[in-house]
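Fig. S4 source data, part A: sequence.
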Amino acid sequence: MDFIERPALARVDLEKLIDGLAGVIAPANYGMIAGLANTLPFTHNFDTAEVYDVLVAAAIRSGNSVVVDLARADRKYFLGV
């Protein structure tokens, strides 16, 4: 089986990504934002489970409690935690 090398995502770049998502995430576009976040394991050396940490962090930084609930519900549903 061939493996495709993917670049690591530097912590500073991850923080910028989370801040950027936090600036636009809303209940109306949550599915689209989650879809974008789910591309991280395909574009970078990034653990699939950590996608939900990114979503929760962005939701918390957004200050929107509805989005926080959506992100936490997704993490619970897909990861059981």
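Fig. S4 source data, part B ends here. The chain has five helices and no strands.
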